[in-house]
């Protein structure tokens, strides 16, 4: 559970974890130097399954997600954002699905979206657009060829996360081996990029009923990023990350390269519009520096 200034919600999130029908777990709360009472709420629980780890400095969302993963010790990693809620049977159902086939590296389920009243009409519209994401997949089963699902997302242009947010996902420790966790280059869709890489090399389990509640509120990362247009370069970075994957098939690589060219054109047009709005920043120059180093055979590592 990565947490930062989540005092209004973290108690409900923790209680949903403690109320799981599967009780053999540790709950690692990684507090990212919160300035509210998040840490006090988290440490108020006496349950021995809870381990609260406070960071001495603010790492940011991606850094704290990766810190939480590295602090955890289990064979399975079940994400729970500090403003979300798990259904009581969530962990049992997801671990049960993963135990059915040791080739499964990721398990996901639908989620219920809870739109807080202060978000207003925008939240209702967002909920309507992003409900039932899993229904975009063709022939989704309880146990799926991850590469086949990956190919469907590529054919759809790698435009939208059909898996869902981290609270709707469990991954195996083995699937995370190799050190590349959530990417610090992405503002909004680092979870989607990680799911894509896991899907390339593992089977994917699915539980066909909502097992968590995703809370959509004014302080959520999704709302903040949309309001400030922070994620405008995310898709280009995702495509770059996929092109580093050696398990891509030749036709997939060609298709992703085509998508990258189109995404770059879109990013350039967006940058021009942002300049006219006084929003010049260093993100696109940083991308071009990455591309120059990549072409020279020395792509910089992604830091968290």
Count up the helices.
11
Class by alpha and beta content? alpha/beta
Strand element count: 11
Q: What value does the average pLDDT take?
A: 90
CATH topology of the largest domain: Spore Coat Polysaccharide Biosynthesis Protein SpsA, Chain A
Poorly predicted spans: 223-230
Separation of termini?
Answer: 17 Å
Q: Note the overall shape.
A: globular
Largest sheet: 5 strands, mixed
In words, what does this structure look like?
With about 300 residues, the chain is α/β, with parallel strands linked by helices. The protein has helices spanning about 10-20, 40-45, 60-70, 90-100, 120-130, 145-155, 190-200, 220-230, 235-245, 250-275, 285-295, and strands spanning about 1-5, 25-30, 50-55, 75-80, 85, 105-110, 110-115, 145, 170, 205, 210-215. It has a 5-stranded mixed β-sheet with strand order 4-9-6-10-8, sandwiched between helices. β2 (about 25-30), α2 (about 40-45) and β3 (about 50-55) form a beta-alpha-beta unit. α6 (about 145-155) packs across α7, α7 (about 190-200) packs parallel to α9 (about 235-245) and α9 packs antiparallel against α10 (about 250-275). The radius of gyration is 19 Å and the shape is globular. It starts with a strand and ends in a 9-residue tail after the last helix. The relative contact order is 0.13.
